[in-house]
Write a structure and sequence with these properties.
Helices cover 9% and strands 44% of the residues. By secondary structure, it is mainly beta. Strands 1, 4, 5, 6, 7, 8, 9, 10 and 11 form a 9-stranded antiparallel beta sheet that branches.
Length: 181
Amino acid sequence: MSVLLVRQNWADKLSMKYSFVTKVHGSPTLVEQRMKIVPTPIRTLKLSGWEYDLVKWRNLLRGLINSSFDVPLLMERFSASGTGSVLGLTSVTAIEDIEHFYNLQALATKVLLMNWDLLDYEELTVDSIVGDVITFTAAITKDWGVGACDFYPTMEATMETLEIEEVTDYLMGFDMTLKEI
């Protein structure tokens, strides 16, 4: 699965909307009852950002409109405790208290190990989460220092809307809405 790596413009808001697909049942007493059809909510993520290399990013984003991809949920970033390299680790202990990270705890099946300095990543499948310890189904293959990378839960999404503002020949701003599939 491809991954959409965009940098959020933190001056603008990042929002996540949760919605359940429901069915309304009527009754002879005119009382409505609403039942959810799917057990987990459908997530919609709105974000905005800036990217350099206008032509590359404009073509990349427009090319993703009809495809699915994984997107890191930037609001639930966590770091691993310890020192040394993450190479070969099958579990990490989060520095942050991840107990209230809803997407990670309840919905995520994958996390993204991201090194923003190198613009490189590795996708990891979550086996279990117990307290602040996240266990993966396979060992990490990237040889990065613990302090050089961050972890993000991901969601599989499609692009619902995309607005591109061409600021200069090399700089673009964008607003996009991503919907979980």
